[in-house]
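Why does residue order matter? Because the sequence determines the fold. Keep that principle in mind as you read this record.
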Amino acid sequence: MRDVRSTSGETTAVIGAGQAGFSFCARLRELGYLGDIILIGDEHHAPYQRPPLSKAYLLGDMSLDRMLLRPPEFYPDQRIDLRTDTQVTAITPDSKTVTLGDGTRLSYDNLILATGSTPRELPRSLSGGLDGIYYMRSIADADSIEPEFTSGRRGLIVGGGYIGLEAAAVAAKRGVKTVLIEAADRILQRVACSQTSDYFRDLHRSHGVDIREGIGLETLHGKDGRVSSATLSDGTSLDVDFVIAGIGILPNVDLAQAAGLDCENGSRVDATCTTSDPAIMAIGDCACVPHNGDHLRLESVGNAIDQGQLAAANVMGSDQPYEAKPWFWSDQYDIKLQIAGLSTGFDRIIVRQGEAASRSHWYFSADDLLAVDAMNDPRAYMVAKRLIEAGKSPPADAVSDINLDLKDLLKT
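Structure:
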């Protein structure tokens, strides 16, 4: 490890005050870093949790104070110079400086890109620049959407991924007449097996959500500058009061590209989270990391925390490689979905039925366990997660045996 004393007088700047940027700063100070830490965020708020935005926060079950990752006094106490409402307009690697929106230039010894991602927007040819069209990424987004969630209003959700489904769940619970359209053959097609899609389709329909698959958005129409109706790809016309689009996200790489860094589906990094410039690292949603001989981005809280903490250790000289241990979750109605692993390349699904709505779907490639989707089944999730992280694969017939205590799989 690097001698902590050698960090005195250094400056480490972090662009992006989300989960990844916060985790990096907190861990770096915890490891004894003596230099200056500057955390730059473009939002008004101190770092906060994003997952509750489309769930508990939008329902009114969680306040902003509870979403903050740390209370405001944490930052001065830890000598972290938190700068909110601050834009970064340029990175100049040759001089090791970043330029802020007001023209100020900051010098750095280490620069961390934690710039996150941005919702993919509907083409203007479809949306027409109308009011009443929303995306979900920030507190400001959630605050804008919340007044729309009034009983009896008509909402259209475009996109059947997790963001769209979570928004649909909140809308339905608030009494909104909700239609969700998905252009692919089924909801969750990109991220889950058909059994998981079936489970959540049935769940949403039981709560009154009108799910239409294999149907896209043709165009939106407005009245007095606000969306009022939608034409779907099958020719159907819907009267709507508002639209929420959840059609994916794009990594924020404009600064990295302009600085000449290698970018491909994010800021491309090596195993230590270092970009093509040795003084610059990238972490979180914006980073494209090595994995099994390829590169990928992991859009999850777990990944943001793990990469942030690893990058902090590497600034201190540990030179650790990042080993992805993917885990995700989604809350919809009274169902908690927990996911461990990556299902890419699976060729069969083992369904383990639990009590009531409890169920788990185990993804195998031949005899290798890749991932699990666990619905209201925390035991299945934890056992599968431990097996995947240990590189162990249980017999498929054992997984499907409901008389077997899952913990026994950890003994083999």
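The mean pLDDT is 94.
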